[in-house]
Amino acid sequence: MLIPALPAAWRRHVAALTLSLSALPLAAADAITVADVRFAPTQQLQGQQLQLNGAGLRRKAAFKVYAAGLYLEQHAGSAAQMLAQPGPKRLRVVMLRDVNAEELGRSFLRGMQDSLDRSTFSKLAPSLLRMGEIFAQGKALKTGDGFTIDWLPGTGMVVTINDQILSEPFTEPGFFEAMMGIWLGPHPADAGLKQALLGGSS
């Protein structure tokens, strides 16, 4: 039995619908699994439901270091779009190998230094030192350990390791932006991970 050809108007409608669907960001109902780490499609933070913006893998040489997922209220395809959102934000990181915590903290400091000019880096020095102290408290982050970096409007930036808040919030203006620059700045630690966090494929 022959199927009659669709009218031209219907063909145009179907083509437009297909194109619009392909251009949509990651659906809120979709979880992402990265190296056996599952990132749920949504998370609750400060009474708001955040959607998984993207998730990917941090590699160093031939090693898989950690998986990371970014949660926002609305999809963001750039760091500027992410920072422009007024609501809470979360970066979730899960370790894929044992890493010395102090060494990881130092790598974060180097990453911020790479993404900041000297003047801004100097202004943020007190918060940078405190961030280093947080990671120096633990001898190592084991495979499967995780930490989150949360931005909470009205409170500041909060760092949690294995569900334990390790310090008072970082309230210094610009520090959360500087911290996120490690992953989403112009000179990210891993360009493939940056692309994945912003909804692309690594």
UniProtKB/TrEMBL annotation:
Q: Which UniProt keywords apply?
A: Isomerase, Signal
Q: Name one GO molecular function term.
A: intramolecular lyase activity
All copies of the Chalcone isomerase domain together span 33-199
Q: What residue stretch is flagged as signal peptide?
A: 1-28
Question: What is one Pfam family matched by this protein?
Answer: Chalcone_3
Key word Transmembrane present:
no
State the protein's name: Chalcone isomerase-like
